[in-house]
Amino acid sequence: MEDAVRQILQAIGEDPEREGLLDTPKRVRKSFEYLMGGYRKNLAAVINGALFEAESDDMIIVRDIEFYSMCEHHMLPFFGKCHVGYIPQKKILGVSKVARIVDMFSRRLQIQERLTRQIAEAIMQTVDAEGVGVVMEAKHLCMQMRGVEKQHSMMTTSAMQGSFRAEGPTRAEFLRLIRG
Predict the structure, then answer these.
(1) Which candidate in 82, 83, 110, 112 is catalytic?
(2) Would you identify the CATH topology of the domain 50-178?
(3) Residues 83, 118, 137, 140: which is the catalytic one?
(4) Is 72 an active-site residue?
(5) What is the pLDDT of residue 55?
(6) Strands 51-53 and 91-93, sheet pairing
(7) pLDDT tens-digit profile of 115-157?
């Protein structure tokens, strides 16, 4: 990876041997290892046994989970907030595990649409929920820094499964509660 970064620096007209860039290939490698850390994680390890008997079947929501990801088309960041809700049947997740699931999938090259669906499917699969809803709101630097250069644009995606998709009142309750 460090050799590739040196080649990129040369290709854009920079001198990878100049003082300010000498350690850049190493820093970029470390940065990408961190930013793409989701590839080295799996759902079972992230959950790490934090599944508990459900004492109710009421909606559980974790909102405003910050996330950072990298667009797979331009390798530029997109970032924002993720809101997750689910209705348990027999099991609930430890609350921090919801945020860890968001992190695991967002720390990969992504498109927001797939990321939203992956989070919903992972939670649905893990807790065998009655339903799951995920809404993501993000700013994409590939739209802000290049291309159409729209500085205030925000993309919103949603994935609804089970009762969140089939039952309008359940979906409406979730959407109302995440708007706080």
Answers:
(1) 112
(2) GTP Cyclohydrolase I, domain 2 (3.30.1130)
(3) 140
(4) yes
(5) 86
(6) antiparallel
(7) 999 999 999 999 999 999 999 999 999 999 998 998 899 999 9
